[in-house]
Amino acid sequence: GLTLENVLDYFAESPFWDSQSNNEVLKMQTKFNFLPDHKPLDITKMTGVEFYVVQADPPFFFIVQKRKRISEYEARPLASYYIIRGIVYQAPDLYTIIGSRIYTSLYHLHNVFNNIREHVNFHPATGYTWKSDKDDSHAILGNSRSIFFFTIF
């Protein structure tokens, strides 16, 4: 199963892995280094793109963050990925989430205005009137300007 020790090696097999990342550079530099007194390099001392496990609930759930290391104490997030039961997913960015929510809201508003438009009639002599289910007579709307924007949609 996946653990904190092997999750980045597992993530390295996904299409989201950057072979130019600091993680890969360190992996290649220490791959054949069998010296007992060798201290592994600290990834926080390097600058560039790195992958880091932000949150974990082994063995089923991990969040991996791709970030740009600027200094030893500063790293900016670039993307987030999550691993659920061994499947790697890319998390959507904030722009995509907000865009999707706005699009969904506008879609539903458009449907509301279309439904309202089906229940309103306009005649130059009487202005806007609501359609009545009982008979052909219509109730006159009080202020025709307030309903004008319905005709736009």
From TrEMBL:
One Pfam family from the record: Med6
GO biological process assignments: regulation of transcription by RNA polymerase II
Record lineage: Eukaryota, Fungi, Fungi incertae sedis, Mucoromycota, Glomeromycotina
Family: Belongs to the Mediator complex subunit 6 family.
Described purpose of this protein according to its UniProt entry: Component of the Mediator complex, a coactivator involved in the regulated transcription of nearly all RNA polymerase II-dependent genes. Mediator functions as a bridge to convey information from gene-specific regulatory proteins to the basal RNA polymerase II transcription machinery. Mediator is recruited to promoters by direct interactions with regulatory proteins and serves as a scaffold for the assembly of a functional preinitiation complex with RNA polymerase II and the general transcription factors.
Keyword Nucleus attached: yes
Cellular component terms (Gene Ontology): mediator complex
Keyword annotations of the record: Activator, Nucleus, Transcription, Transcription regulation
Localization per Swiss-Prot or TrEMBL: Nucleus
Main location: nucleus
Keyword match RNA-binding: no
Subunit structure and binding partners: Component of the Mediator complex.
GO molecular function, one term: transcription coregulator activity
Protein name according to UniProt: Mediator of RNA polymerase II transcription subunit 6
